[in-house]
Design a protein that fits this description.
The structure holds 2 protein chains of 2 kinds.
Chain A lengths: L8 E2 L11 H14 L9 H20 L8 E4 L2 H12 L5 E5 L4 H12 L3 E5 L9 H7 L4 E7 L11 H11 L2 E5 L18 E5 L11 E5 L40 H17 L1 H20 L4 E3 L11 E6 L4 H12 L1 E2 L1 E3 L4 H7 L6 E5 L6 H15 L4
Parallel strand pairs in A: 1-11, 3-4, 3-5, 5-6, 6-7
Antiparallel strand pairs in A: 2-8, 7-8, 9-10, 10-13, 12-13
Helix pairs in contact in A: 1-7, 2-7, 3-4, 5-6, 8-11, 9-11
Chain B lengths: L5 E4 L3 H13 L5 E4 L10 E5 L4 H10 L6 E4 L1
Antiparallel strand pairs in B: 1-3, 1-4, 2-3
The chains are: A alpha/beta, B alpha+beta.
Chain lengths: 391, 74
Amino acid sequence: MIPSERPLIYFDHAATSWPKPAEVGLAMARFLDEVGANPGRSGHRLAVDAAQAVFSARDAVARLFGEPDPLRVAFGHNVTEALNLALFGYLRPGDHVVAGSLEHNSVMRPLRFLEQSGVEVSIVPASRQGFFDPEDFRAAAKPNTALIAVNHASNVIGTLAPVREIGRVAREIGALLLVDAAQTGGAYPIDLGTDPIDLLAFTGHKSLYGPTGTGGLIVGPRVDLDRMRPLKFGGTGSRSDSEDQPSFLPDRFESGTLNAVGLAGLEAGVHWVAERGVEAVRAHEVFLTQRLIDGLTAVPGLTVYGGGNARLQTATVSFNIAGWEPSDAALRLDDDHAILCRVGLHCSPAAHKTIGTYPKGAVRFGLGAMNTAEQVDAALAAVRRLADGGR
Amino acid sequence: MNGSWAVVLVYSTSYAIRIERILKAAGIPGRLVPVPRHLSSDCGVCVRIDPAQKEAVREALTAAQVEYVGIEDV
């Protein structure tokens, strides 16, 4: 790391949250030092302790998302893996899938690949401000629509998709709804007990405040497990007498040793979020985000993307400064102001095409639960200097 | 448990832990132990319970809507 005299202002939570709550690292160290065995592979006390740690993470994630059955949480290494599992596992040649124009490449690339093997893909456009009309998803549906896949919130401009309304459309047309909760899990309320979501893909290292290498897919009761193929086949510690993959959750989708140390950290992260409450985290982020949007909008020469209303988006805001390439602006923000952000296309060319910033990209500030109003104000002052021509 | 036990046989370790926790919440002691070889060739675990509590265990697991393979005396 470059030594910095200023305290860092970390505005890249949309990529991964940092710092993590102290409990996360402590839980991981404790797991390595005191447990360390393979979860679910033996019956000795340390193996049981390891399995307990993984189950506690499963239980914590299920509770946070309102899922009554923790065994429906299938862990993987990140949200990309979970989305690949859902898309490659569920879709077959001849199926039709509807997705939004704000999808991350973690959905878009699997869909474009599947398209080559006979899956039909329709993309519903969002408005230039990043909002969807749920009826557009109904209009895009066909008799063979098997799945609607939608990014719960854009990783570029933060705008929220109306997943409840889209989920109702999915039920009416007899399709499943897959939600990419990379940007919302832990930062925006999700309740699988009432929200019509069939497959929820989440990551552990963003707003759940766990380590990288954790994530998963919550598989709802409407999903036909016999139809849904695993991405990986192999050892599960269960049904060892059989050479066939287990049919039950979560083992069907959890072949190979899990990232148990990471999941121990994830449990601590989820616990940290749950102690504060998703609603309280959300309220803090809405406050910070509106302060940021209002401040940016008032700077001459700035273009701020999205709808301008923090209540309709996550704590991620993208903008461009007249006369600045995003990459130059980011380097100056880092070097002179110790503000860490992300520029470019954010793995979402479709989203940048939607908002009119392709291929130049934009500067993205991704705020998190630990950011403060003082940091937002300091960042606004820095952006004003850049916009003033302060190279 | 006086030297004789019953075990709840399960699909996987995850199920075993879920069942152990459901039983604990219902005030019924259970312990994860390796599956006795004569009951299954599986490499996993099961939940050991007091045979006097088999009915209470069945009721608790039915109420929680959790599946299990069976309850066997050991």
